[in-house]
Specification:
single chain, alpha+beta, Butyryl-Coa Dehydrogenase, subunit A, domain 1, Butyryl-CoA Dehydrogenase, subunit A, domain 2, Butyryl-CoA Dehydrogenase, subunit A, domain 3, 3 domains, four-stranded mixed beta sheet, four-stranded antiparallel beta sheet, 12 helices, binds flavin-adenine dinucleotide
Length: 391
């Protein structure tokens, strides 16, 4: 395709007109979301259990392998395809959405982009079938937003690296079979230098899963500590160049942010759907709430912000399909979408009153889920710093 026709195609996607393949992914994802995931979503949230039916159905459709190339048993899709799926899943269940996003964006992506051929052959086919679920271990007690302040160490001993340290807040920590792990391999002057990236199997001796957090939202997605105690990892499991781990971590997160933006816009779409049904069925002062002017105005603003978030998401997805690290596109999508879904949750609950605040109502669940979109994979404050640096 020429540059002009590529740009023409991208303009259509940003306007919500997907190509045939991505539209098919979106339609099938919506069916899975409505038929398999939605009927279980309240139970997942209340029991805080792994959303098995959801992940199984996405796996059966091939969507857990969305960005794995076909030669490794994957779906061979694009970032636009991935976003098309994540938007629909998050509209009914943000927990399933983040598990799927982390698997693809934070585990598959670094392996296929920076991994050696040996590592790719070994792990991508297993990630493609969900024999292994993927997770990403960067955060530590003293390294959250300040991710360069890694204390976990990896020392070379013969043909193995020996890992020692602890990670916190790891999504899918309980269920993951494969971890992307960052650790310090040298004590350079600058904290960001001297960090390396590894792939570590969950059953490696010395790796243990610690405390699981009890969170206010995305409760069906486990969030745990991961400990490394003289954990011996084959040297061939180094991902990318030794000492380049911090740059790799940031490039991975940049893509992950588009996944969280999809979570925000998916939640936002679910809120609009719920609010629409509510305001058309509830009557105040003799007419449906939907026809009260202030309610109609609020609804219009929620729709406009949702559509803007989706446009930013598809802009970022197109950019990711074109170049590896489009920072501004990814961070603006994440910042806007996560803030907009929180505004939507707050305003929808206000209009619905107590009916929107009781357990079992999707707006109540999404109100709690939405809060976390502004915290992980870079807080809103961190996105603002990142975006300002692109000027
Ligand atoms: C549900 C959940 C799942 C997670 N999953 C994972 C995972 O799978 N893997 C992983 O590695 N991590 C994961 N995390 C960790 C997440 O990425 C961190 O929570 C996030 O990076 C913020 O770090 P922190 O919580 O330590 O907050 P802090 O970094 O302590 O920030 C606290 C506050 O200070 C602000 N702040 C910090 N630095 C600055 C600055 N320079 N300028 C302005 N304001 C600043 C922040 O914006 C925030 O408001 C998860 C977190 C949550 C909540």
């Amino acid at each position: 395709m020429s540059n002009a026709s590529t740009l023409h195609e991208e303009a259509r996607i940003v306007n919500g007109i997907l190509g045939e393949a991505a539209q098919a992914v979106r339609d099938r994802s919506r069916e899975i979301a409505e038929q398999v995931i939605a009927p279980n979503a309240v139970r997942y949230d209340e029991e805080g259990c792994f959303p098995k039916e959801a992940i199984d159905a996405l796996n059966d459709a091939g969507y857990m392998s969305m960005i794995i190339p076909k030669e490794y048993g994957g779906f061979g899709g694009s970032n636009v395809d991935l976003c098309s799926m994540l938007l629909e899943v998050n509209k009914v269940c943000a927990s399933a959405g983040v598990i799927a996003s982390v698997h693809s964006s934070l585990c598959v992506y670094p392996l296929k982009t920076f991994g050696s051929e040996t590592v790719k052959q070994k792990y991508l086919p297993k990630l493609a079938t969900c024999e292994l679920l993927g997770a990403y271990c960067l955060t530590e007690p003293e390294a959250g937003s300040d991710a360069a302040n890694q204390r976990t160490t990896a020392e070379l001993d013969g043909d193995h690296y020996v890992l020692n340290g602890s990670k916190i807040f790891i999504t899918t920590g309980k269920e993951a079979g494969l971890f992307i792990v960052f650790a310090r391999t040298s004590k350079e002057d600058k904290p960001a230098k001297g960090i390396s990236c590894f792939v570590v199997e969950a059953d490696t001796p010395g790796l243990t899963v610690g405390k699981a957090e009890i969170k206010m939202g995305i409760k069906a997605s486990s969030t745990t500590e991961i400990h490394f105690d003289n954990c011996r990892v084959p040297a061939e499991n180094l991902i990318g160049e030794r000492g380049r781990g911090f740059n790799i971590a940031m490039e991975i997160l940049n893509g992950g942010r588009v996944g969280i933006a999809c979570q925000g816009a998916g939640i936002h779409a679910g809120i609009i759907e719920e609010l629409d049904a509510f305001t058309k069925s509830e009557t105040r002062n003799g007419k449906p709430l939907a026809y009260q002017q202030d309610v109609a105005w609020t609804m219009s603003e929620l729709i406009a912000e949702h559509d803007a978030a989706e446009a930013l998401i598809f802009r970022a997805a197109c950019a990711r399909d074109r170049e590896p690290n489009p920072i501004r596109e990814c961070s603006t999508a994440k910042l806007f979408s996560s803030q907009a879904c929180n505004r939507a949750a707050r305003r929808a609950m206000q209009i619905m009153g107590l009916k929107g605040a009781v357990r079992g109502n999707r707006v109540e669940r999404f109100y709690r889920d939405a809060r976390i979109t502004e915290i992980y994979e870079g807080t809103s404050e961190v996105q603002k710093i990142v975006i300002a640096r692109t000027i």
